Amino acid sequence: INPKYTLAYNNRGNIYKDRGDLNRAIADYTKALKYNPRYTLAYSNRGSAYEDRGDHKRAIADYRAALRYDPDYKRAKDGLKRLGARP
Fold first, then answer.
1. What is the mean pLDDT of residues 53-81?
2. Is residue 43 part of a domain?
3. Which tens digits make up the pLDDT trace of 75-86?
4. How far apart are CA 60 and CA 62, in angstroms?
5. pTM above 0.90, yes or no
6. Alpha-carbon distance values, 44 to 2, 55, 60, 85 (Å)
């Protein structure tokens, strides 16, 4: 993977997440964010992986980060709602 091709890291993270390999998914979403710290989708996807892992504090932080860059991002709003948190 081209180290700066954030979409590839995000997509591979999705594959890992679908397979239940949450640690590798989170690692790939984190790599995507390293090269694009405003990547709303990667924040939301990493938040979802943290949520699936039961780490609600980190999930909430990532959903809120996604909303910082896109205040209307529905997936992040839905994630916060599921966790009983406000934006």
1. 98
2. yes
3. 999 999 999 999
4. 5
5. yes
6. 22, 14, 10, 15
